[in-house]
Amino acid sequence: MREKNHKYLPDPFDSKGALLYDARLMQKVKIPVTIDPVKAAQKRSDYEGFVPLVNLTRLTQSLLNPQGEVTVRVECGTDQQGLTVIQGSASCEVSVTCERCGEAMMVSLDCNFAYTPVKPGDDSALELIPERYDVIEKDEHGEINLRQLVEDELILALPLFPMHDEAVCAVSAASMSFGDIGPEPEKPNPFAVLAELKKK
After folding, report:
1. Could you state one GO biological process linked to this protein (predicted)?
2. Most Cβ neighbours (<10 Å): which of 44, 46, 107, 142?
3. In terms of residue numbers, what domain contains 49?
């Protein structure tokens, strides 16, 4: 499993370094659930739109409120190596529980991603893929689940222990008490017991 890199990657579709996709008009469409990445790359398809949070059921299990939308931007193309690349970004505001005070708090989730699709079990293809790309498997129809990809990225962006800034949290770190466990009860020394037996 590659280490996730959430820095925004340069456009792999531009051989001269100019961000050509900025000049292309983005299609204001509903983000599809699945896409054929090869066909989308050939057409250099771009998508910009929203995914309702309520549709991302694995993510919303960790949220207080499933209401809201994820802003998604996806760009499809082919890089200099001839690899199909699906790259983009996703962002949203979600409500979670503060681990310090137990109250609700808002967290901004932002992620950038770059994937290249492979056939399931095609280990030889993995050796040719640069580390700047993550790998996603195509299904039996040659498609990838775009909604699941976005959801995976947002789950990775979710903080493990969300907490308010201490200045605004209802419970300060200094006032937190974890209790006194007390001294551990003494256990008999097995060597002392053996010494007593030898005296008898």
Report:
1. ribosome biogenesis
2. 46
3. 34-159
